[in-house]
Write a structure and sequence with these properties.
228 residues; TIM Barrel; globular
Length: 228
């Protein structure tokens, strides 16, 4: 299986360049206005260009036609949906462009994980599991129940990428990769000095430690799902 690293919540071009230098695969820009890491579409575009990596735009509860316009404006490769978007919204987005769709699920209880995976299988390309926070849609640094995911990991739909987020940092990403066997690890607050201000050394360490756990994943080919 392939392991990919996404550094999210970027607000500065210099940080985007540091992400590329560290060897991550995705840069993420938040386009949710009330987020402390929110940027404008024009800023997201500059982040994408500075990194030279696929851009993930983080959005919530916007109309499909509007999202398609923003995705084209920013050059996004992935649209990450963090609101209460329906399956119909996702299907409409499919009609409007060839970008990948990731649906974020903020997990309150472990028994929510598998039903969410089955709900979104065949609708989106990946499900991002994040920790629950009553006021923030993401980037809160809260972990979801890892043990609950471990218990159902073999039942995860084979067509659905698993994106692990929430509370990851350089100190725990190796454990996360080995235990959760995700296709993507996603970090924001875990590599920051302050919201939106990244620490280049923490980024480098996060990517290196994620990669160091990668060889263990080849031991169980049954968990190898197609990369999108």
């Amino acid at each position: 299986m392939s392991l990919r690293v996404k550094i999210c919540g970027l607000t500065r071009e210099r940080d985007a360049a540091a992400v590329a230098a560290a060897g991550a695969l995705y840069v993420g820009a938040v386009l949710v206005p009330d987020s402390p890491r929110a940027v404008r579409p024009s800023q997201a575009r500059r982040i994408f260009e500075a990194a030279g990596l696929p851009l993930v735009i983080v959005v919530a509860d916007r109309e499909p036609d509007e999202l398609a316009k923003v995705a084209e404006e920013t050059g996004a490769r992935v649209i990450q949906l963090h609101g209460d978007e329906s399956e119909a919204v996702c299907r409409r987005l499919r009609e409007l462009g060839d970008w990948e769709l990731w649906k974020a699920v903020r997990v309150r209880k472990g028994d929510e994980i598998l039903p969410a995976a089955h709900r979104w299988s065949g609708v989106v390309d990946g499900v991002l599991l994040d920790g629950w926070h009553p006021r923030q849609l993401g980037g809160s640094g809260v972990r979801f129940p890892w043990g609950a995911l471990e218990a159902i990991r073999r039942e995860w739909p084979s067509d659905l990428s698993l994106i692990a987020a929430g509370g990851l940092n350089p100190d725990n990403v190796e454990e996360a990769v080995r235990r959760l066997r995700p296709h993507v690890v996603d970090v924001s607050s875990g590599v920051e000095h302050a919201p939106g201000i990244k620490d280049p050394e923490a980024i480098r360490s996060f990517v290196e430690r994620a990669a160091s756990a990668y060889p263990d994943l080849s031991k169980d080919p049954e968990d190898d799902h197609p990369a999108h």
